[in-house]
Amino acid sequence: MPRRDSVIAPAVAAAPAGAPLPPQPISDEVLREKYAKGDERGIDDVRRRVADALAQAEAPAERADWAARFLQALRSGFIPAGRINSAAGTELTATLINCFVQPVGDAISGDDDGHPGIYTALAEAAETMRRGGGVGYDFSRIRPRGAWVRTMQSQASGPVSYMRIFDRSCETVESAGARRGAQMGVLRCDHPDIEEFIHAKDRGDLANFNISVGLTDAFMQAVQDDREVALVHRAEPGPAQRALGAAQRDDGLWVYRRLPARALWDQIMRSTYDHAEPGVLFLDRINVDNNLSYCETIASTNPCAEEPLPPYGCCCLGSIDLTRFVRDPFEPNAAFDETGFAQLAQTAVRMLDNVLDVSYWPLPQQADEARSKRRIGLGFTGLGDALVMLNLHYGSDAARAAARRLTEVLRDAAYEASIELAEARGPFALFNADLLLSRGTFASRLPAALKERIRRYGLRNSHLLAIAPTGTISLAFADNASNGIEPAYAWRYTRRKREADGRWREIAVEDPAWRLYRHLKGPDTPLTEAFVSALQLSAREHLAMVAAVAPCIDTAISKTVNVPVDYPYADFQHLYFEAWQAGLKGLATYRPNPVLGSVLSTPVSVPATAAEAAPADRRLTLAHAPQPVLASLRWPGRPDFPGGNPSWSFMLRHPYGEFALFVGEHDDGAGARPFEVWVNGAEQPRGLGALAKTLSMDLRAKDAAWVRLKLDALATVQEERNFEMPFPPHGEPRRFPGVVAATAAVIRWRCEQLGLWSAQDDATPVLDAMFSRDEPQTGPDGTLAWVADLHNPASGEALTLMLKEVLLPQPGELGSVTRPCAIAFSGNYPKALDGLARILSLDMRVLDPAWIGMKLRKLLSYAEPLGHFMAFVPGEKRQQTWPSTVAYLARLIIHRYAMLGVLDEQGFPLRTMGILQAPESTPALANATPDESSGERCPECGNAALIRRDGCEFCTACGYVGSCG
């Protein structure tokens, strides 16, 4: 029974009065396209078909009664998985099961120690997908690339090569109901080909696979302890591997090679940051928690990872729409109807158990496996929306407590229902109460009353709970309720939908909580703080929600941590490790990238710290600025070394040649530290030297985290061609989206070797002085920006420079000042300048303009061979020779700062702020006081930029024209 003192109170009031909201067009479209059959036209037609089909598992005399109960359950918010809605009660010989796991052996054909050979497994998988099921595989048994094949006196090609065959088969075989098959590929972390597997999708390969690395506790402990790990396999290595030191262990396994666990871990994290894969599965946690650990071992999952499954195992899924149980939404007394929720969950368990008896099975092994264990996976959807309706912020402790409580209600109701079914129909064939309730299993942690009833009556289903993704069923049956355990992606967004002719169409979609709030409160009522979307949450807030709910789920949770494209790698890189520490069974992430793009796109939203100014010349405004740090940050410049200094060099090979990269070191008594970077060679891309020069200044700051932020910003710079390059220390090939990203990766590696981020000093004076870590975003109406065109006839470069600008409040009564906050280029220019733009954009968001002034002044002298040209001096009617395109760009940016009254035309600040101590000889500061500026304060934009020009008041910042006289 529900507890009266629970976090989620039982229902005390009726649902809001008034007519229900009309369905969204997208819901009806998805329903008809994916689920409606024959002459079915509406949602109730589909529900009635499904209810009748599942009632066929009941006694003949009771079928009509159960069909009516099942129909009411469907109307009340239970949503069976897609295959059930699509195929139940139809003439299709299609499975009602969404996904399976297929074993794969090492033999080409036949049987390999109880596992089907590779091509036998391929045929079985093709039949499964043809009948509507997705398939997960563990490819770890397949011998690694280069292993010896004695029968053929040849060398093996490795599991990734065979995965490509499975990938093409999946692409070719159309599942029942025009549904393409989905696949999950898993490889253990200790397999010799694990590095090839991690990077297998870097170039968009294996498009019909999700991939996850199977991680062991031993490996994770090695990462934590910074130890080496052995890559092993039972297959004998070939001559090449043996020549490199491969040897057999006492346990019979062959050690192909060893490598630092952290080096492998970094590859996993960088690949998932750049390409959204691989995900991770924590194999030991999965198997220890397994109710059936006494009779099966799990090495893979279904394609969305909410169901860890044994060979031939299946996931019979369904979800309950939580939004249907919120009473008095958005009101102070908003509550969750636990009683109604529990009653629906019990009926849903019976319906899913019936699915196992009425489903068509693609393979007899799958039918045998399902009937001997009777796994089902009941979960929920709409958690994000339900929390909003309960006035709970998804990232709060209160929201996590509420989610935990309702999951406990689901757990107890589901297990109670399975006990009752076992009493009536008998327990699953392999049921053993003592072993199932043994220490460590999920069932051993159930409430004592449930465990006692399990011992007395048995359990109908070995597993009962899973939180699955609910993309299209949510759209069709739940008004686009937030997916599974996820928060809402956005309140309004555009969904990209592929048409039958292959073209994409964009459809506007709205979130149901947002729709209901607007319906109840009016279109102009501000949203509450509970309206938080996926990309507004930190990765750790996403992770914390899974950690709160996972102890109540006996299989697993499909959870993708969505982060924006500019999410810092520094905040991302420990995410999977924290998931392991939290006891999760797995995790996946998604960050938009050039290979995958995004199925959903949102209108650019305004962050909480930014808003649009009111004038017609719309400007981006920050609500507040940080206070300057108390201690000034000194910029020492390049140290003078009369006796020279050591440097590390690396030949960086790219599609158009190679060049030398140097990292200079300086030992100040506390150990060698990097302090400069430069490049040399005729085949270096134009503009890369300017990037290195700017990074050198960052390396001389007393802020190692700032350097890491800069390198993170460069890690995803996309250029014309991606390429593979030998990477230190052993020359392993690694793919990069361009030369800038490759250069940044090598610099990062060397900095790590020198211990830049392991120093005891955790001070972050530059980061602390930023007025915005991320680029401030405009609203849909946009804002004004400053642009300038540049043509360098010597190099053939013709481009447009654009500066995004923001109104930044100043301390006291000084009003606001316009400051550039980001740089962008368009036109014909060397793509290395995109990297320069990224890091200078970060420099622009340091509160003290002396910082960006220092960077720009250094670039004024940057020269390139045959790159000098004549051009007008900004703000003057004379020309001069500029040593490079970069130098002239720096001059243009300084000129804009001067127009805004922030820097003078030489790049020196007009007002000190105490963050960066300027050189004593700075001309612009010689006679200046903190309140001096280049003009009076403009009544239009508030900048100290109002001058007299041609007898009139004129604002150099916004163009305001005042009185003339």
Task: Give structural notes.
The chain folds into five domains: 324 residues, Alpha-Beta Barrel (Anaerobic Ribonucleotide-triphosphate Reductase Large Chain); 160 residues, no CATH class; 112 residues, no CATH class; 164 residues, no CATH class; 31 residues, no CATH class. The N terminus and C terminus are likely disordered. The longest helix is centred in the middle third of the chain and has 29 residues. The protein contains 29 helices and 45 strands. The termini are far apart. 32% of the residues lie in helices and 21% in strands. Strand 10, helix 7 and strand 11 form a beta-alpha-beta unit. The chain has an eight-stranded mixed beta sheet. Strands 28, 29, 36, 37 and 38 form a five-stranded mixed beta sheet that branches. The chain has a four-stranded antiparallel beta sheet with strand order 42-43-44-45, with no helix packed on it. The protein is an alpha+beta fold. Helix 15 packs parallel to helix 17.
Brief overview:
It catalyses: a 2'-deoxyribonucleoside 5'-diphosphate + [thioredoxin]-disulfide + H2O = a ribonucleoside 5'-diphosphate + [thioredoxin]-dithiol. By secondary structure, this protein is of the alpha+beta class.
